[in-house]
């Protein structure tokens, strides 16, 4: 089993994905434990001073002017967590919650929050035991941290609320008892430190970066299959033409297309003097410009995510010289903006994919293929309604591309008068990424059928590998069949990485 030790080594995006989607054991190294011990000593010293310190001896938000006497400060932290665990709606995905837990633990381990070592260690124990607090869809405005989602995690540390454990959903107290984990009795500042971060939205960004990295390569595979089966040209993807507009993402996508189409007998069959087509439609010719711009957007999002991973987000925060200072680093704008930004190319790559699917089905544009790729047009409808499905998803993706971060609803009696809505941006982006995978599945399935219909001409080795992988679960051309399971099987092959792996076994790693 993989062991991830937090402390001396910086946390990477790959670490977040591995823990969120796997079963890694998470521990705190000696550096982290030393920082936690030293920071806690400063907080306990301040807790005994007469000067009010936000989060230690005061109320929260608009109630920060209320001084809390020492005998009520433990109750203050418990009350904070219970009241802020006010989420509603369906439970969010396990991987999102685990990513959020790891990222909060990363900030605790930085020594800038002032929690006791045992609080951080208990959060690590929950991750290692596979105990995932139930976090609800609604409750974060993406400012003052992802409050309700993180409070649900903190509640589980206290042995309250519900969790998903190895035995299914159960009370947190029962899951902790079964795994031998002692509930935490929160002390000064600890409740606040557990809930005041951008960890939910950052976790969703990390997972999305991983997913889109693969899906954009699949988009190139789908485009290559379509260019080939629609008798398009690969000359427009030449390196010298692409270099005239030196965007790195565009160069990478065009390079992929050249490698994917290399050795195609279908392409060679119409490279003759009697070919009358001088240029292809935009959805074929401009594929690297669109997929490339999406890559460059993803690279920007990755830069923001890496900066956020290097951050310690809490309010108030413990500085290196022992001060406890209020700040605004919990505001989710940097993450919210890129979550919204990524929804735009996600929708546009899907939109171009759907346009290529539609070309296959129209006899006026599909270069001699049967109407709708049907076996017996009229009796059979072929992939007619598969295109409807893709179009319906694309329409939804365009709605999901409307930014959440331009909205703000003031809260906490106008103390929190501007919020980021970054959690909402993350939630809609996850839906959009799932939609992109489904639209690409329609194109790949349709293009594979078209490649078969070009027989006896053979596709390139790379696109043949994609087609042949599908044929393990999805039959080739023939009379109409129940299409939904075939679309789902193709989507599974895309999301699992199986389709890309089959192609890269021929081409080597794509860019």
UniProtKB/TrEMBL annotation:
Q: Which domain of life is it from?
A: Bacteria
User: What GO biological process terms are annotated to this protein in UniProt?
Assistant: L-histidine catabolic process to glutamate and formamide; L-histidine catabolic process to glutamate and formate
UniProt-listed Enzyme Commission number(s): 4.3.1.3
Which key words are in the record? Answer: Histidine metabolism, Lyase
Q: Does the keyword Kinase apply?
A: no
Pathway assigned in UniProt: Amino-acid degradation; L-histidine degradation into L-glutamate; N-formimidoyl-L-glutamate from L-histidine: step 1/3
One Pfam annotation reads: Lyase_aromatic
Q: Which reaction does it catalyse?
A: L-histidine = trans-urocanate + NH4(+)
What is one term from the GO cellular component aspect held by the record? cytoplasm
* Annotated localization: Cytoplasm
A molecular function annotated in GO for this UniProt entry is: histidine ammonia-lyase activity
Q: Give the family, as the similarity comment puts it.
A: Belongs to the PAL/histidase family.
NCBIfam families, per database record: hutH, PRK09367.1
Q: Which PANTHER family match?
A: HISTIDINE AMMONIA-LYASE (PTHR10362)
UniProt protein name: Histidine ammonia-lyase
What is the originating organism of this protein? Egicoccus halophilus
């Amino acid at each position: 089993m993989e062991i991830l030790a937090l402390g001396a080594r910086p946390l990477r995006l790959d670490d977040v994905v591995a823990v969120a989607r796997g079963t890694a054991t998470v521990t705190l190294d000696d550096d982290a434990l030393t920082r936690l011990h030293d920071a806690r000593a400063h907080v306990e010293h301040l807790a005994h001073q007469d000067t009010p310190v936000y989060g230690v001896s005061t109320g929260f938000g608009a109630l920060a002017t209320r001084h809390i006497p020492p005998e009520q400060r433990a109750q203050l932290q418990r009350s904070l967590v219970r009241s802020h665990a006010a989420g509603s709606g369906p439970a969010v995905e396990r991987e999102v919650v685990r990513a959020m837990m790891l990222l909060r633990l990363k900030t605790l381990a930085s020594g800038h929050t002032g929690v006791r070592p045992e609080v951080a260690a208990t959060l690590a124990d929950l991750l290692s035991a596979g105990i995932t607090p139930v976090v609800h869809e609604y409750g974060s405005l993406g400012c003052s941290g992802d409050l309700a989602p993180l409070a649900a995690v903190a509640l589980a540390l206290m042995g309250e609320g519900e969790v998903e454990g190895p035995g299914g959903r159960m009370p947190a107290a029962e899951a902790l008892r079964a795994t031998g984990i002692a509930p935490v009795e929160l002390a000064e500042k600890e409740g606040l430190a557990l809930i005041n971060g951008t960890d939910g939205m950052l976790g969703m960004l990390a997972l999305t970066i991983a997913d889109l990295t693969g899906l954009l390569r699949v988009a190139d595979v789908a485009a290559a299959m379509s260019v080939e089966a629609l008798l398009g040209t690969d000359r427009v993807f030449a390196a010298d033409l692409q270099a005239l507009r030196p965007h790195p993402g565009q160069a990478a996508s065009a390079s992929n297309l050249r490698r994917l189409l290399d050795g195609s007998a279908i392409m060679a069959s119409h490279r003759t003097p009697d070919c009358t087509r001088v240029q292809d439609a935009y959805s074929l010719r401009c594929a690297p410009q669109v997929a490339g711009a999406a890559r460059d957007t993803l690279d920007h999002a990755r830069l923001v995510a890496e900066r956020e991973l290097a951050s310690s987000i809490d309010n108030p925060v413990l500085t290196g010289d022992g001060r406890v200072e209020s700040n605004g680093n919990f505001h989710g704008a940097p993450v919210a903006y890129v979550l919204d930004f990524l929804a735009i190319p996600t929708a546009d790559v899907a939109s171009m994919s759907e346009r290529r699917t539609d070309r296959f089905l129209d006899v006026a544009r599909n270069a001699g293929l049967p109407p709708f790729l049907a076996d017996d047009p009229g009796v059979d409808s072929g992939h007619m309604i598969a295109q409807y499905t893709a179009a319906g998803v694309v329409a939804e993706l365009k709605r999901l591309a409307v930014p959440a971060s331009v909205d703000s609803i003031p809260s906490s009696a106008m103390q929190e008068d501007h919020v980021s809505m970054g959690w909402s941006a993350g939630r809609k982006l996850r839906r959009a990424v799932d939609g992109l995978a489904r639209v690409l599945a329609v194109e790949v399935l349709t293009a594979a059928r078209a490649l078969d219909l070009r027989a006896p001409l053979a596709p390139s080795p790379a696109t043949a590998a994609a087609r042949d992988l599908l044929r393990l679960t999805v039959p080739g051309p023939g009379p109409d069949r129940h299409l939904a399971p075939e679309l789902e099987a193709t989507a599974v092959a895309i999301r699992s990485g199986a389709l890309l792996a089959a192609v890269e076994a021929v081409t080597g790693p794509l860019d």
